[in-house]
């Protein structure tokens, strides 16, 4: 098992390193001339050259990359042009806010979508099944800002039960803060519900149709015993991976949602950095987003190995 | 056992039973008008090919038909309980107390994430035991199914056990209920022959002890012959014939039964003795025959009347059959005279110059500490036009050997392969065109071996382009000739594999292999994926093609009867080593290697009474990754002589006629032992669970 | 042989099967609805400019933020432009970009996936790591990074979104190829001396085509999703194009002032397009796996 952990973590590190290369390439090599990208096409060549040397872009590429990587490894993400302060600190604060929002969405969506998927599978082919799978799919494929706009209009403006700003006024209690987060969290979770429910449903149906379930039935177990003891556990195993990757991907939706609701999270920070061509900040924030995903998939694999004896056997024999 | 005061009801009573599946909005009768009765304590066998309705019958008996299936007519009772109307609690009671089932693939029948002990205990818990009691009784059950270390096995998950062990667990689970009826649905299909023999013994023993009625479902006549008192033969959902096992198989009254008996070579029969009985055509699609006898279209004895008028079930003494001309059946079960092959003394004596020479082939997968050697020191020769049969269980390395010969895998350093005296390079890409042409293959599963997206014509055309020197304009004509050679109807050339029956697909695969006039065709279990009625036709075809083209075969199979029929010489493999090589006729008579001896004593044909004295191996074959020291067979060998077997690899004893036996016991001694009494294998080492 | 047991094969078996698949699709109501909606938007993209009541670019400050009426069915925006006309014409950019991006992704992804699955070993291992690293970034964020660096343009949008999704497709195709690679027809091809390119494209590719088709349809939907999101953020389709995402970005600020129509109608347009594509994708997947 420890051998598997080391191997899996090693692979995660390689992926993370490749990610840093991609991010660096995207932010520093693609623009060709970063200062020109920042100042615009009409800037005077002299000022472009000056900015380039001021920002260190006149140094060799590899040197810049290792400088940046070394910094990141020691927690130094460089200085944001836009805010003129430590990119690392900015990212940490924004990440904290985003985690709050994300947590609300995850706590709502994971149990709901798993239950929805299992429920749909147990009522396969009936109206309840179609409602969950069909409805779930539709809300999930809509871009978050579309869901967001509709929710905003419906629950914030036409029938104003929820505040339309995601940020509570200063000094508000945690409950008030939570109330402000519900609308954006709903828009976020809409994006996840369909995918998780779908995998949970498919997993349940596979197990319901499996020979082992028939064995349990023919043994004389009651249907609810069959489902509780023999179906649920096997059915939900595949959902672990999907849930983890979907949570990792939720960060993509955060950019849009935080922009729409003007919430000071990682997404909005990323958006501002992109809009103002604040490359150190953008690079750092994108790297963090990717790292979150990689860590989530790592956790999913490890969890899978812990709870699924077959996977455990595979990883220990390897 | 639950005490029943009323006079014992029949274990199974089916009257005019219809079972229907709803497929794509249409009802299809899978079982039609079935009458069947199993007496208390009786063991009843149900044989038939895939799709004949055997498994449907089993599922109907436990009330577990798939959601699109239902009992649509007639009556079905198990031990006096009506099943057609049983619902809810009544059905559940029936399942906990009356009827139990053992399935074909134990690996899939067990819950992968629940410990084995708990799964067996559950069978007691449903009968209102506590979990602790349940576990204690599960422990007891595991002892009953002869598992050496129940404590250890209880804590295991199913995937940690071998197939044979898994099936014991399923049997333990089924017998935990002390059922009045035990249904066994192909319980040993997919197990190796030696393991199968052991599981069958166990079932027979437990049945004798528990006096349970048994419904034994199998496609394998020899297994039915060994295990059952009476047998019913199903064809396309209809009971074709039934009666006492020996009587039915020896004196069939239905042409289908007769053909089934005749299409499997009897022990001792070879290709020089005559051709196998082949049943033309393929099984009709579900519920497609509406008038007349369901077998009429394939029946060699059929008259006009058969297609028009369904024969009634005729009862004579303890026999029943559904045929207008029962007297014609007898002649059909005997192999046709006019053998396809003629004996060739020179070939048998191994006096022809070798075509293919294989020396010291070894194959290792992986490296370092995790290296697994699946083949060790394999050497043999093959003469032109000869058939070398290779027999072995899973893990014996026979398929890897095939891949090495064909250049799909490279052998380890030090191996030599020669064709016509010229060295064969390890990889197929490095061999010259002539060598590539000379060596071709027929795979086990034509569904996998034919590209589903290509038409048959395209498949053959491509083979001709690569393997023959024909100019493009001659190829179309050659395709037609090839199709004719393998008896493939011309219109099917433009179909895709999915549109062909299994037998037809295998004919295409054979045609493809013969496209470039190969010298050697490697046949890797070419009949194992086919129904028995189709197998015979394929074997006949291969023998005929061999005679026409003078092709040599390397014929790999786990099925001794088929190998004995088709092979001139036989090589027996175990765990990647050769145990024994010799002319086909010699290998089947003493002296033989103790492993061959065990293989030979597994049931091999439908005439169980002739079964020879039994030698049984205990335990599962060891893992290839961790082979035993000394002789690899020593852990299971019933004739182990002592420490020498554990420490030294056995010598190769050269006997007359090119015979080789790898054993520490001198051949003369082996012969004396084997002509005397059979032995029981040593009790397995508890570690070996 | 019974006539019923072996369906006689006609030369046009392949076409017959295709016809059967299409028939099966047409029996599914959600597929028909999806196709109808998609066709509507394709039509709008092709001829919308010619048939709309007003010029989608013409501003009319005097008539700004007029609510829906007979003259302006969907009202007007802050510059007094007709929202209905802009919604109809706005389908063009997003449809073109999404289709091109999905096409590029499919082409690239299928090739990479074939190479990974067929050659396996180190090639596969290396490309798998790259795929994982690319997929660690949600496509919107990857695109945001590249569009910031390169400056927004429709071509960049196609290339970036196509690149991002190609790795997802590559992984799916790889898995399908791995299954096929173990099949005996591949071994048979090697035994008769076929070379790798023929085996990859002549033998294996036809067998993974259903997977590729499904991936393409799904990716069209995902591309619409991503392009709309990027436009909303201001990095996608550039003004003055009447793109839906842009329209929403321009006008959601006036939502609280009560001008709901400027954002809601483009939002519904996006919703109908995305859902229609996913309905098609879902049904195609269902029909092909039957």
Automatic annotation (TrEMBL), chain A:
The keyword Transmembrane applies. One of its GO terms (biological process) is transmembrane transport. It is found in: Cell membrane. InterPro entries: BPD_transp_1_N, MetI-like, MetI-like_sf. Keywords: Cell membrane, Membrane, Transmembrane, Transmembrane helix, Transport. The chain crosses the membrane at residues 101-122, 134-158, 178-197, 231-261, 281-303. It is a multi-pass membrane protein. Its main location: membrane. It comes from the Bacteria. PROSITE patterns: ABC_TM1. Residues 95-304 form the ABC transmembrane type-1 domain. GO terms for cellular component: plasma membrane. Belongs to the binding-protein-dependent transport system permease family. This is Peptide/nickel transport system permease protein.
From TrEMBL, chain B:
GO terms for biological process: peptide transport. SUPFAM superfamilies: P-loop containing nucleoside triphosphate hydrolases. Signal peptide: none annotated. Belongs to the ABC transporter superfamily. InterPro entries: AAA+_ATPase (IPR003593), ABC_Ni/Peptide_Import (IPR050388), ABC_transporter-like_ATP-bd (IPR003439), ABC_transporter-like_CS (IPR017871), Oligopep_ABC_C (IPR013563), P-loop_NTPase (IPR027417). It holds the Pfam family ABC_tran. Residues 14-261, 356-600 form the ABC transporter domain. One of its GO terms (molecular function) is ATP binding. It is a peripheral membrane protein. It is found in: Cell membrane. The keyword ATP-binding applies. Keywords: ATP-binding, Cell membrane, Membrane, Nucleotide-binding, Transport. Its main location: membrane. This is Peptide/nickel transport system ATP-binding protein. The keyword Membrane applies. GO terms for cellular component: plasma membrane. CDD domains: ABC_NikE_OppD_transporters.
From TrEMBL, chain C:
Keywords: Cell membrane, Membrane, Transmembrane, Transmembrane helix, Transport. The keyword Oxidoreductase does not apply. One of its GO terms (cellular component) is plasma membrane. One of its GO terms (biological process) is transmembrane transport. Coiled coil: none annotated. It is found in: Cell membrane. InterPro entries: BP-dependent_transpt_permease, MetI-like, MetI-like_sf, OppC_N. The keyword Protease does not apply. Its main location: membrane. It is a multi-pass membrane protein. Signal peptide: none annotated. The chain crosses the membrane at residues 31-52, 93-118, 130-149, 155-173, 220-238, 258-281. Residues 95-281 form the ABC transmembrane type-1 domain. Belongs to the binding-protein-dependent transport system permease family. This is Peptide/nickel transport system permease protein.
């Amino acid at each position: 098992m420890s051998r598997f952990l080391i191997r899996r973590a090693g692979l995660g590190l390689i992926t993370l390193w490749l990610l840093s290369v991609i991010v660096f390439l995207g932010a520093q090599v693609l623009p060709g001339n970063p200062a020109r990208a920042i100042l615009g096409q009409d800037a005077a060549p002299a000022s472009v050259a000056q900015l380039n040397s001021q920002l260190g872009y006149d140094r060799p590429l590899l040197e810049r990359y290792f400088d940046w990587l070394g910094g990141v490894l020691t927690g130094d993400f460089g200085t944001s042009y836009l805010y003129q302060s430590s990119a690392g600190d900015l990212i940490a604060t924004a990440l904290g806010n985003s985690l709050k929002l994300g947590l609300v969405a995850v706590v709502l969506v994971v149990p709901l979508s798993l239950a929805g998927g299992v429920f749909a599978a147990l009522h396969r082919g009936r109206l309840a099944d179609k409602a969950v799978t069909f409805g779930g799919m539709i809300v999930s494929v809509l871009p978050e800002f579309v869901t967001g706009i509709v929710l905003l209009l419906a629950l914030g403006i036409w029938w104003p039960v929820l505040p339309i700003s995601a940020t509570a006024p200063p000094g508000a209690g945690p409950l008030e803060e939570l109330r402000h987060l519900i609308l954006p969290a709903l828009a976020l979770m809409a994006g996840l519900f369909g995918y998780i429910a779908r995998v949970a449903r498919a997993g349940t149906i596979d197990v319901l149709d499996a020979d082992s379930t028939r064995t349990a039935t023919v043994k004389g177990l009651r249907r609810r015993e069959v489902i509780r003891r023999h179906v649920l556990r096997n059915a939900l195993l595949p959902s672990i991976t999907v849930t983890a990757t979907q949570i990792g991907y939720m960060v993509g939706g955060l950019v849009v949602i935080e922009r729409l609701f003007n919430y000071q999270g990682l997404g909005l920070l990323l958006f501002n950095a992109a809009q103002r061509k604040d490359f150190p900040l953008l690079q750092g924030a994108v790297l963090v987003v990717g790292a979150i995903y990689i860590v989530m998939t790592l956790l999913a694999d490890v969890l899978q190995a812990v709870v699924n004896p077959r996977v455990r056997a595979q990883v220990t024999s390897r | 056992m639950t005490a029943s005061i009323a006079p014992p009801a029949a274990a199974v009573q089916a009257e005019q039973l219809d079972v229907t599946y709803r497929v794509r909005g249409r009802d299809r009768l899978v079982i039609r008008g079935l009458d069947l009765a199993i007496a208390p304590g009786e063991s009843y066998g149900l044989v038939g090919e895939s799709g004949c309705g055997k498994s449907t019958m089993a599922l109907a008996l436990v009330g577990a038909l798939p959601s699109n299936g239902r009992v649509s007519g007639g009556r079905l009772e198990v031990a006096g309980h009506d099943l057609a109307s049983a619902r809810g609690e009544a059905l559940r009671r029936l399942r906990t107390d009356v009827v139990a089932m053992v399935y074909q693939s134990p690996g899939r029948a067990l819950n992968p994430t629940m410990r084995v002990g708990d799964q067996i205990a559950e069978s007691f818990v449903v009968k209102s035991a506590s979990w602790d009691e349940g576990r204690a009784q599960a422990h007891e059950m595991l002892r009953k199914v002869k598992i050496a270390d129940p404590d250890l096995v209880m804590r295991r998950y199913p995937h940690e056990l071998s197939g044979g062990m898994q099936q014991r667990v399923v049997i333990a689970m089924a017998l935990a209920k002390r059922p009045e009826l035990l249904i066994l649905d192909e319980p040993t299909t997919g197990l190796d022959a030696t393991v199968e023999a052991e599981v069958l013994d166990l079932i027979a023993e437990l049945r004798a002890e528990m006096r349970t009625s048994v419904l034994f479902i199998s496609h394998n006549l020899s297994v039915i012959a060994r295990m059952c008192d009476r047998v019913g033969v199903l064809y396309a959902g209809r009971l074709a014939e039934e009666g006492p096992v020996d009587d039915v198989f020896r004196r069939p009254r239905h042409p289908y039964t007769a053909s089934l008996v005749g299409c499997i070579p009897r022990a001792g029969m070879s290709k020089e003795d005559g051709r196998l009985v082949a049943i033309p055509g393929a099984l009709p699609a579900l519920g497609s025959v509406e008038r007349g006898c369901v077998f009429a279209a394939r029946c060699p004895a059929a008259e006009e009347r058969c297609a028009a008028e369904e024969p009634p079930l005729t009862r004579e003494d303890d026999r029943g059959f559904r045929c207008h001309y029962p007297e014609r059946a007898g002649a059909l079960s005997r192999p046709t005279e006019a053998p396809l092959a003629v004996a060739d003394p020179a070939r048998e004596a191994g006096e022809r110059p070798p075509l293919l020479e294989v020396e010291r082939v070894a194959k290792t997968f992986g490296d370092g500490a995790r290296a697994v050697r699946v083949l060790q020191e394999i050497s043999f020769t093959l003469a032109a036009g000869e058939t070398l049969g290779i027999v072995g269980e899973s893990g014996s390395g026979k398929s890897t050997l095939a891949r090495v010969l064909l250049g799909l895998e490279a052998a380890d350093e030090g191996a030599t392969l020669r064709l016509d005296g010229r060295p064969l390079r390890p990889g197929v890409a490095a061999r010259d065109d002539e060598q590539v042409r000379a060596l071709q293959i027929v795979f086990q599963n034509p569904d996998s071996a034919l590209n589903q997206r290509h038409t048959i014509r395209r498949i053959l055309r491509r083979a001709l382009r690569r393997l023959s020197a024909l100019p493009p304009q001659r190829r179309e004509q050659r395709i037609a000739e090839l199709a004719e050679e393998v008896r493939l109807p011309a219109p099917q050339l433009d179909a895709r594999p999915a549109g062909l029956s299994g037998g037809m697909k295998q004919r295409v695969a054979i045609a493809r292999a013969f496209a470039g006039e190969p010298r050697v065709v490697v046949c890797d279990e070419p009949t194992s994926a086919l129904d028995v009625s189709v197998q015979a036709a394929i074997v006949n075809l291969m023998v005929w093609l061999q005679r026409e083209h003078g092709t040599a075969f390397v014929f790999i199979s786990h099925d001794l009867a088929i190998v004995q029929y088709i092979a001139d010489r036989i090589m027996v493999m175990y765990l990647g080593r050769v145990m024994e090589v010799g002319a086909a006729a010699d290998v089947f008579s003493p002296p033989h290697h103790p492993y061959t001896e065990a293989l030979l004593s597994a049931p091999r044909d439908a005439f169980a009474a002739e079964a020879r004295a039994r030698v049984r191996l205990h335990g599962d074959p060891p893992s290839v990754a961790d082979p035993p020291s000394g002789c690899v067979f020593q852990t299971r060998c019933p004739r182990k002589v002592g420490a020498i077997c554990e420490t030294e690899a056995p010598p190769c004893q050269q006997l007359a006629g090119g015979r080789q036996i790898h054993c520490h016991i001198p051949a003369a001694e082996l012969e004396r032992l084997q002509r005397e009494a059979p032995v029981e294998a040593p009790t397995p080492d508890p570690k070996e669970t | 042989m019974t006539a019923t047991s072996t369906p006689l094969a006609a030369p046009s078996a392949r076409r017959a099967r295709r016809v059967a698949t299409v028939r099966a699709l047409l029996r599914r109501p959600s597929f028909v609805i999806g196709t109808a909606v998609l066709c509507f938007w394709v039509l709008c993209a092709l001829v919308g400019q010619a048939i709309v009541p007003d010029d989608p670019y013409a501003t009319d400050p005097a008539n700004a933020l007029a609510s829906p009426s007979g003259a302006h069915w969907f009202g007007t925006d802050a510059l007094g432009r007709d929202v209905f006309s802009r919604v109809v014409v706005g389908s063009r950019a997003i449809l073109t970009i999404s289709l091109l991006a999905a096409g590029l992704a499919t082409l690239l992804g299928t090739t990479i996936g074939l190479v990974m699955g067929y050659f396996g070993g180190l090639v596969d291992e290396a490309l798998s790591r790259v795929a994982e690293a690319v997929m660690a970034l949600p496509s919107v964020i990857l695109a945001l990074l590249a569009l910031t660096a390169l400056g927004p343009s429709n071509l960049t949008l196609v290339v970036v979104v196509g690149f991002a999704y190609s790795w997802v497709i590559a992984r799916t195709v790889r898995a399908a190829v791995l299954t096929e690679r173990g099949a005996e027809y591949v071994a048979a091809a090697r035994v008769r001396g076929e070379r790798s390119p023929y085996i990859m494209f002549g033998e294996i590719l036809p067998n993974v085509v259903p997977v590729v088709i499904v991936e393409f349809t799904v990716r069209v939907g995902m591309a619409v999703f991503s392009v709309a999101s990027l436009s909303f953020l201001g990095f996608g389709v550039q003004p003055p194009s009447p793109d839906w995402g842009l329209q929403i970005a321009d006008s959601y600020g006036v939502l609280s002032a009560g001008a709901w129509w400027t954002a809601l109608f483009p939002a519904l347009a996006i919703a109908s397009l995305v859902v229609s594509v996913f309905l098609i994708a879902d049904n195609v997947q269902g029909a092909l796996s039957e």
